[in-house]
Each structure stands twice: as structure tokens, then as C-alpha cells.
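Hi L.,

You mentioned the student needs an example of a multi-chain input paired with its predicted structure. This one should do, with 649 residues in total across all chains.
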Amino acid sequence: MTSTAVTGPNSNPHTNAKKRSARPSAFKLLARNQLALMGAVILALVVLIVIITPILPLPDPDATDPAQRLLRPLADGHFLGTDHLGRDLLSRLIWGTRVSLAVGISASLVAALFGSVIGIVSGYFGGRTDNIMMRGIDMLMAFPYILLALAIVAALGPGLMNALYAIAVVNIPFFARNIRGVTVGIAHREFVDAAKLSGKGHIRIILTEILPNVMPVIVITISTTVGWMILETAGLSFLGLGAQPPQADLGSMLGEGRKLITTAMHLSAIPGAMIFVLVMSINLLGDGIRDVLDPRLKSGALARPAPLTRIDRTDEGAGTTYPDDTVLAVDELRTEFVLGDDSYKAVGGVSFHVGKNECVGLVGESGSGKSVTALSLLGLVASPPGTIVGGRVMFDGKDVYGMSEDDVRDIRGGKAAYVFQDPLSTLHPLFSIGDQLVEAIRAHNAVSYKDAWAKAVELLGMVRIPNPQSRADNYPHQLSGGMRQRVGIAMALANEPRLIIADEPTTALDVTVQAQILKLMNNLRNDHGTSVLFITHDFGVVSEICDRVAVMYAGRIVEMGTTEQVLHHPAHPYTKRLIDCVPRLGEPDRRTSAIPGLPPAVNNLPAGCAFADRCDRVEEACRVGSIAFDDLGNGHGVRCIKPMEGADV
Ligand code: ADP
Ligand code: MG
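Structure written out for the whole complex:
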């Protein structure tokens, strides 16, 4: 072993660190949103102009000149014309925009400050504090919004500052409610408890644990309310309650122009257009900021995922033939996630088959593409961002990607069923397990509720749940983890599937329950002749249940063979090292060795073997071209140019 051979992924000369950054930056994401970008450019332009207004060669906005009154736009010396007192409209527009923008932004900041403090304090402390503060906020909210603003200005007297206070006050509830909701959600999370246990005081917890988590919400709320605030200020000025003559703001200009709308339309049209442009650009930018800051929106969560993964294939597999009793055949399957300019090749050409009554294991480190492979089989990968870009999946002799949506839906949960890793998140918390089984049965069979219920009870008995009659009325939270997983398996069995795709079904369970579940699956397989695709990262589990094993690394199968071949005569150095990682009972002296380094990022795979960086047998030839999958005979195959010695059995 050379000392440079087994190091982290960054030592690979074929990659550069910059391209590896997993997600595009916030700014890049914002720039990709063209409407938001347009808003940002317009707003930046307006802001720039209002900042440099004092040094612009503009006439005094308040200087009257009766001789020059009501000039049309493009008049000599007055680009936008003049108003009824002969004041230059361009100058008033720019100074007015300056005032409106300043008042709108200040009001937002004031409302955000007080609203956030109220929201965080009441959400964090809860109980009586929360009650008193929120009832106060409710009282503010009981008044119609603009009426309250009018009442406040009426009480304080007309004027720009008073309008600012009024607008800020009526918007405080909006911030307080939003921020309180978010704070309540995180105030009792484990990391806050941990901070309390470490001895931090309330103020420090609020500042260092709560605030950073609610900050995006505060920013989003500000960015989406500034536009509103500008409109509201303009509204008050329009009614004569905001800016007082001769001072110009967009609302008062509109109000003055309104009186002459028939004789000099430009007096109201110009400030009106300015309000439109300003509010529009702020809102577009605000929406863009919201999309960037909300991580769920980044991956396109708002776009409803298609019922079937998008299929955009450049090839339909290598056309490999499989034995007659094959239930599932996967031929050069490739699934990618496209995020911006990056495509993540989560599954990069996977071929295997599962015969009748056979259990095939799919093993690999976390992130090697096992789950995406399993989901791709029946088009369950969310699109966007997932796309099946190549290959073919034959189920029961039919091409799944050539089927109609309805046909695929018919197979899902019918002839092919899934069992997932975490049974608590797959079961619906609000329905009894009996009802959920009934739903699974009735989705594929036209039977009465009563018959389906009887079948559900029978299924629960089949997966060895004690007292199935009474247990069927239980809700998921009333069961133990092992029982829940049994319910998951019962649900998969509901329609006598030909194939069960089990994605780490025992990973969340302790070893005794794990052994029971494995035994159960083995029995069911023997009794019903079901085929199983069993996904796991645990070689111990593999030896218990699988007939054949495929080892996956960075989206490709690197070794495939019978369980005996792969476990006892591994051909790929990766398989060998994976097996060496498993501790053995009764052999305390045997050193388990972790595999150094990390799997490569699938958006930037190196040439040659993806494992080369971590392999202690690496040579120059491992880093060029693509490594073929070689047959070692007897159904044992490996994707390595220098397989381990003694593997060809
Ligand atoms: P595992 O082998 O642990 O089941 P997965 O199949 O879940 O791994 O993931 C394989 C790769 O695909 C990982 O690199 C993961 O980051 C990526 N991936 C999975 N789901 C998505 C998604 N929705 N968007 C982008 N990348 C994803
Ligand atoms: Mg997984």
C-alpha cells in the first residue's frame, strides 16, 4: 500500500474542489429566477437614484412657478412637465419616491423589530406570557387593518411620521403571529433542550438558538411586506393624512393629480406608474428571496411531483436476456437528479435481475444509490428533480417505462410492493392500522369493507402480531417499532405480490426484532413463492436471507454473485473492505478497519473506478476510461481490473 493511495476524495487530481460544492449558492439561485432578477435590477436602479437625489441637477421640487403651470411632459426644461403650481414633476417624482421608499422600509423594519420580539418571546416562553401577548395582538387584529391605521393617524394628527407609526403598528400582528408560529415549533426541539442543559440563559438561547432559525422567516416576511407598506403609506398620503404640502411623496402626488385627472392626466398617471413599478419590483424580488431562503422550495417542492418519474431516455438498456422465470430485470438503469447546472448521477447504469422466489440483496454504503434504484423501478422518484435517463426495467416480462400511468399504478402495491425503512413515517398517524390495511386491500380489489377487514386481521396474524382482532383497532403510535414494521410487511403482502422491494426494513430495529422480521420474511417467501429485492447496508442481514447479492458503489454495481461467493470470496476490494468492517462475535482480537475517505459526489464522478481514491490496490489503469463489469464464471461478476485473488469460484 502506498501512503498516497488511500486518502480522502480531495486528493483526486481529476476533481477540482470548486465543482464539488454540492448546492448552488443563494445568489446564483436568485439570479436564475429571471423575474426576481428583473425586480432586483429595477429596484437597485430606483434605490441608486433616490440615494444620489441630493446631488442630481434637479430643480427645487417645492419651487412654484405659476407662469409654467400644467406643462405637458417633454416640455422645455421640464422632462415630465409641471403640476398645477408650476413645480417640476420629475424633481417631485424623484424626491417623492425617496420619501415613499424611506417610509415604507422604515415602517417594515419597525414592525419587524417589534413583531419579532413579541413573536419570539411569546413563542419561547409560552404559557401565560404567550396568552397575554397574543390576546393583545388579537385585539389589534380585531380592527380592520386600514381603519386602524386611519384611527391612529387621526389620534396622532396628520403627518408623515405619524403615518409611518400607524403603518408600522398595524403590521406588528402580522409579524408577531408568523414569528410566534415558527418559534413555537422550535422552542421545544432537542437542540434547545441541549442548550438549556448546557447552562445557557434564556437571552442567550433566544439569540443563539432561536433567532438564527427564525431569521429566514423574518427576512421573508419583510421582503414580502415592504411593497404593501409603500402602498399603505401612499394610501394615507393620498387621503391627505400622510405627507403634508408642499412635501411630495408618491401618494400625495397621486392625490393632487386626481383633482385634475381630466385636464392633465399625466399628473396622476406618472406617480401611479411609479408606485406600480416600485411595488412590483419589490414583490418580485421578495418572492425570489422567499424561494431562495425556503429550502423546501429549492428542490422544487412546490411543483407537484409527477405521478410517474420523468422518463427521458437516451437508450433502452443493452438488451441483455435473462432466465425465463425472471420477475424483475433491470438493464443499465440510469437515474439522475438535475439541480441547476449540476446533474447528480445517483444511479449510473445498474443491471441485475430477480428470479421467481429468489431474494436478491442490494448492499452498499449510505448514499450509494440503493434507494433511488429501488424507487426508480416503479417510477417513484420525485420529478422534478429526478429523471430516468436511460435503461430499461422489465417487470413480469413487461417494460415498465413503456406502460401507461394507470398500468404502473396497478402494479404498485399490487404485484410489486414496497416496505420502507421507517415504519412510523410510512403509516398514517390518524388511521388505525386495520383501516390502513383495508385501504391497501381495497385499492386493488373490489371487496366490501367487512371482507377487507377480515382479510386485514388475517394478514396481521400472518405477520405474527398477537391478538390481531383487537390490534387492528390500534393506531401506529400504540405499537412497538417491530410491530409497526410487521404492519408494513402485512401491508406489502395485502395483495399477494410477486415481488417485495424492501428498503432497509430492519435498519431501524434492534437485533432481536431484526432477527424475527428476517425469519418472518423468509417464511413468507417460502410459503408464497414471493421474490424479494432486499436493500441493506448490513452484511450480517445479507447472509441470513439473500440468495444472491449485488454490491453498489457510487451508483453502480461493482460486484454481483451468490451470497456464498460475495461473502466468502469477494472479488472487489470494496466488497472485501466492507466485509472487514463487520465485527464478528467471539473474535475480539480481529481488527475491524474502517474504509478511509468518503464516497465521491455523484455530480462529479472521477474517470475510471469510483473507488480508486480509497482503494489500497489502485494502479494508474484504474483511473482511465470506464471499468467494465467482468464475468468471473458461475454467475460471479466484478467491476474491477484487478480482482482479489481466489475470487473466481
Ligand atoms: P442510499 O444508498 O443510502 O439509499 P440514495 O439512493 O438515497 O442512497 O441516494 C443516492 C444519491 O442520490 C445520494 O448522493 C443522494 O444525495 C442523491 N439523492 C437522493 N435523493 C435526491 C434528491 N431528491 N435530490 C437530489 N439528490 C438526491
Ligand atoms: Mg436509502
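You could point out the following to them. The mean pLDDT is 86. The two ends are 26 Å apart (CA to CA).

Best wishes,
N.
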